[in-house]
Design a protein that fits this description.
With about 600 residues, this protein is α/β, with parallel strands linked by helices. It has 20 helices and 26 strands. α16 runs parallel beside α20 and α17 packs across α20. Bound molecules: 5-amino-5-deoxy-1-O-phosphono-D-mannitol.
Length: about 600
């Protein structure tokens, strides 16, 4: 958040940060310019409350002035500790920067700064921006920010202040959110409107690759080359609580809609010069070549992402892959040695069952690669290597965008293994990656089903139970659809491999029982498609009400579907990324129709730290 105007900046910024805190709880910090050439910064690891306690301790007298900015951090580069908290300063201490996003070429920029004799004070990618601005600053902060923005690769929102220009705040945006709030004699900058709508409802959304300068009298927008840009103003008509949820009634729906962005962020930077690059993980190519068996261990939704991965990793690498519930893994004496790769998936990185499985695997000398959404959490700390999903913070207890990001990351691991082991030619690896890269757009298209699914959810909200069927990668999607419904709508739900139906579960089918069927593509594995058509006709003949998730244009399925939900056509292994979307919405909306709290289902916690 940034502010300049007639009020004390510290109060306005702290209020704004309270509204934005859900975006990251790893640290918080503020910078205030006193107007006489002074720039004061305070920052603290942990929640905003820690920063406020720190301000009470040191006093707020040094932080007076009408221009300031603040940040709550969700760590990507560098552990969540004080020195990695924002704002970051240049070596003169006169420039302060806060940053959201990931600067992909930061290693190169950091090396360049160090070669210039600049000692960086943090492990973050963000700090490089402060020094780069400082190095070229010649009295025009906006010009310096534009020049630096042109050098940065990746996604960023930068907010920058300089003690020599105390009446303005400069910000730049590429692929990360940034809005301007225009008040009377005051102007605001924030990642979302929730930060300022108690002061003004007049907002301006910035476009890609734009720089904005705010003063108390207004704002000016240019592109990264200084050409003026006409930004589009809009009026915010949400109330405060809706604004925090991006205009939605609950966080989970906001997070479902953030899935294209979460996927794009997770994939960003992982394919360079024709190769998969997993630079955060600390396993060398030789380690990957030595692997002779893969175990995926995880719980709940993360486990379902592992089940999806099994199909892809075995197909691409010809390595045997076992996917196992972390709570079962260590109690059954699995066969592990130093050539076993254990992939431990956990959104929180704190799940006790998964952590114990990691410890057990390492005791047995297996190599452990963590896939995690929370920087610096216990599971990555105790693993040999880590790959972070960059889905952003997930507030809803039910995992949604982190599920898709986990699937994408598992696929990156599979492709990296195939590349290192030579089981796929480089052009095949490249093709698979490019197909993955097209998925944010496909997921965006799948989000077009929200309205239809909402209506269906309303109709199904009185059902006693719902069954879910799938084959191949559609089977874990069915399990995930059922888990979502159980945890949110407190409704009996079960997922089955469709081929298992005739071995028992078909006895459950009775008149009007809703059964969700996740259809494979007719163009992919035709045999799977025709087998599943037979399964649907078997349950339809017994009176089930069929809800079919199928590829758009699949006409063969129409006679079997009481409700047809069409998702975009994508390669078979990538189908879970689109077919999961309507199932997430279905569970959330049935829960809502039943009057339940979608974001905080009963008896559950976001992070389960007991075995
Ligand atoms: O943080 P983790 O990914 O380790 O959590 C694992 C499960 O507890 C989690 O996925 C849980 O099943 C979700 N609430 C499902 O929506």
């Amino acid at each position: 958040m940034g502010y300049t105007g007639h009020r004390p900046a510290l109060d306005v910024v702290l209020d704004g940060l309270r509204r934005l805190e859900y975006r990251g709880y790893d640290s918080a910090g503020v910078a205030v310019l006193d107007g006489d050439g002074g720039l004061a910064v305070e920052r603290k690891a942990g929640r905003l409350a820690n920063l406020e306690a720190r301000l009470d301790e040191v006093g707020r007298d040094s932080l007076t002035g009408g221009t300031g900015m603040g940040h709550t951090r969700w760590a990507t580069h560098g552990a969540p500790v004080d020195r990695n908290s924002h704002p970051h300063r240049d070596t003169t201490g006169r420039i302060a920067v806060v940053h959201n996003g990931i600067i992909e070429n930061f290693a190169q920029l950091r090396a360049e700064l160090e070669a210039d004799g600049i000692e960086l004070a943090s492990d973050t990618d963000s700090e490089t921006a402060a020094h780069l601005v400082s190095r070229i600053y010649d009295g025009d902060l906006a010009a310096a920010v534009r020049t630096v923005s042109r050098r940065l690769e990746g996604a960023f929102t930068l907010v920058v202040t300089h003690a020599d220009e105390p009446d303005k705040v400069v910000a730049a945006r590429r692929s990360s959110p940034l809005v301007v709030g225009v008040g009377e004699g005051e102007t605001f900058l924030a990642s979302d409107v929730a930060a300022f709508i108690e002061h003004t409802r007049n907002a301006v959304e910035l476009g890609q690759d734009q720089v904005v300068v705010i003063t108390k009298d207004g704002y000016e927008v240019t592109d990264f080359h200084g050409e003026p840009v006409q930004a589009k103003p809009f009026e915010v008509n949400w109330d405060l609580s809706a604004a925090e949820k991006g205009g939605h009634d609950y966080f989970m729906l906001k997070e479902i809609e953030e899935q294209p962005e979460a996927l794009a962020n997770t994939l960003r930077g992982h394919f360079t010069d024709g190769r998969i690059v997993l630079d955060e993980q600390r396993l060398a190519d030789q380690d990957l070549r030595d692997v002779d068996k893969v175990f995926v261990v995880a719980c709940g939704t993360a486990y379902h992402s592992g089940l999806v991965a099994k199909y892809a990793i075995e197909h691409w690498t010809r390595l045997p892959v076992e996917c196992e519930l972390a709570s079962e893994f260590r109690y059954r004496d699995p066969v592990l040695d130093r050539d076993t790769l254990v992939v431990a998936i956990s959104q929180s990185g704190e799940t006790a069952d998964t952590l114990e499985a990691v410890r057990h695997a390492r005791e047995q000398k297996a190599r452990v690669l963590a896939i995690c959404n929370t920087n610096g959490a216990q599971i990555p700390r105790e693993s040999d290597a880590v790959l972070y999903t960059h889905a952003g913070p997930e507030i809803g207890v039910a995992a949604t965008k982190t599920f898709l990001a986990q699937i994408a990351t598992n696929y990156l691991v599979g492709l990296a293994l195939a590349q290192a082991r030579g089981t796929k030619y480089p052009d095949e690896v490249a093709r698979e990656f490019h197909e993955l890269e097209a998925m944010p757009a496909a997921v965006q298209q799948a989000l077009g089903t929200v309205g239809q699914v909402r209506e269906l959810a309303h109709e199904l909200s009185d059902s006693k139970a719902i069954l879910f069927l799938g084959r191949h990668v559609g089977f874990p999607v069915a399990l995930e659809g059922a888990l979502k419904l159980k945890e949110l709508a407190y409704m009996h739900a079960e997922g089955f491999a469709a081929g298992e139906l005739k071995h028992g579960p078909i006895a459950l089918i009775e008149d009007q029982l809703p059964v969700v069927v996740v259809m494979p593509s007719p163009k992919g594995r035709a045999v799977l498609h025709s087998k599943l058509l037979s399964n649907i006709s078997e349950i339809q003949a017994r009176g089930a009400r069929t809800i079919v998730i199928a590829e758009e244009g699949d006409d063969t399925v129409k006679p079997f579907a009481d409700h047809l939900i069409e998702v975009p056509a994508v390669p078979t292994l990538l189908q879970p990324l689109v077919s999961s979307v309507p199932l997430q919405v279905l569970a959330a909306e049935i829960a809502r129709s039943r009057g339940y709290d979608v974001d905080k289902p009963r008896n559950l916690a976001k992070s389960v730290t007991v075995e």
